[in-house]
Amino acid sequence: MSAIEVKRLVEPGFHAVGGVPGLHLRINDGDGRSWILRSTVNGKRRDIGLGGFPDVSLAAAREAARGTREQIRSGVDPVEKRKEARRQLVLDQKMGLTMAETIEQYLTSGKLDALSNVKHQAQWRSTLETYAVPLIGKKRLVDVDVADIKAVLDPIWQSKHETATRVRSRLEAVLSWASVNELRTGENPARWKGNLKELMPSFKTAAIKDHQPALRVSDAPAWYSALTQREGTAARALQFLIMTAARSGEIRKAEWSEIHFEEQMWIVPAARMKMRREHRVPLSQPALALLKDLPKMAGTDLIFPSRQLKPMSDMTIAAVMKRMHGSEVANGQLGWIDPVSKRPSVPHGLRSTFRDWVAEKTDYPGDLAEFALAHKVGSAVERAYRRSDMLAKRTKMMTDWAAYLRSQ
């Protein structure tokens, strides 16, 4: 056929155009037209596409058909060759994917939809774009290794440890997703156990370098007096916190069912303790009086609930101390500061204030204070043989502590 004759074909089906054995123009019902080379490859019938008409002319189709038949004669399967070429193209694209592009694909893949909290979704993106992308964003995904992950974590491991742990966990999730989607192979360089755990310093080592700002022992009575003048649930929670030397989380989630008024005791369940052991806290008369003056809110068993009847945030209690410090500064005073770091004291630092009071103002043994703080005391062997938590002695100590706070 000539080019004009080919152009005039309208009947749907395969039309042999001649010039090269097996070359046909296929016309679909919708008038779509394409070149097909019908041939036999390794005993199998093949319809090999050579492009659409008129984009590929008759002459070009015949030239392509000759080249394809030459490949078949030399033992090459043109269809499989094309598939392999496409696979290689995809592989090359994957090999060139950067870490920043991978993070973006992960964030937009729907993985974050499982997080119902929009704030948490935003934090995921923010932490990765702030700490990971600037350092390893331009690196090819397949080349990211343990040293790269460590380079991301090292600058914030000591100063922003909680943020660093979240960045590591999120990088591990991104890289795991990439492996499942065949974007990379090999071990996950952000894995913690048996990997980064052996390279990064422990959190306890980091914590030693930066103590929480504590209130000066001699300032505690005046500070406590100022605290009692403040209104609100957070102020009462902070008041209960310093009288019991408890952690903020233990106070914020404390429930009325844990208070035993007759025994004058607060029993904190193991699930809420850092050491995962039940902790008995003797309550002084001022602490009991504080509790008895508090209203019991309907719809919750929490002692210090938020307005939504949920545990208040740690920042809510910290804000009380921040405002107290600000009031002092506004009146021309130094404020409630740590004597060593000169930084404003914070709720967790009040535990150190209690510990300093025991050491500086009393004859109580240090172990007794450590029991009150729910710290590990003695070696593993000593703890195994010790059956008492010295409750009676701690009751006297906490009574004296409350009296000292109220001495102003």
From TrEMBL:
<dbReference type="InterPro" id="IPR044068">
    <property type="entry name" value="CB"/>
</dbReference>
<protein>
    <submittedName>
        <fullName>Tyrosine-type recombinase/integrase</fullName>
    </submittedName>
</protein>
<dbReference type="InterPro" id="IPR053876">
    <property type="entry name" value="Phage_int_M"/>
</dbReference>
<feature type="domain" description="Tyr recombinase">
    <location>
        <begin position="210"/>
        <end position="398"/>
    </location>
</feature>
<dbReference type="InterPro" id="IPR025166">
    <property type="entry name" value="Integrase_DNA_bind_dom"/>
</dbReference>
<dbReference type="InterPro" id="IPR050808">
    <property type="entry name" value="Phage_Integrase"/>
</dbReference>
<dbReference type="InterPro" id="IPR011010">
    <property type="entry name" value="DNA_brk_join_enz"/>
</dbReference>
<feature type="domain" description="Core-binding (CB)">
    <location>
        <begin position="97"/>
        <end position="179"/>
    </location>
</feature>
<dbReference type="Pfam" id="PF00589">
    <property type="entry name" value="Phage_integrase"/>
</dbReference>
<dbReference type="InterPro" id="IPR038488">
    <property type="entry name" value="Integrase_DNA-bd_sf"/>
</dbReference>
<dbReference type="InterPro" id="IPR013762">
    <property type="entry name" value="Integrase-like_cat_sf"/>
</dbReference>
<keyword id="KW-0238">DNA-binding</keyword>
<keyword id="KW-0229">DNA integration</keyword>
<dbReference type="InterPro" id="IPR010998">
    <property type="entry name" value="Integrase_recombinase_N"/>
</dbReference>
<comment type="similarity">
    <text>Belongs to the 'phage' integrase family.</text>
</comment>
<dbReference type="Pfam" id="PF13356">
    <property type="entry name" value="Arm-DNA-bind_3"/>
</dbReference>
<dbReference type="InterPro" id="IPR002104">
    <property type="entry name" value="Integrase_catalytic"/>
</dbReference>
<dbReference type="Pfam" id="PF22022">
    <property type="entry name" value="Phage_int_M"/>
</dbReference>
<keyword id="KW-0233">DNA recombination</keyword>
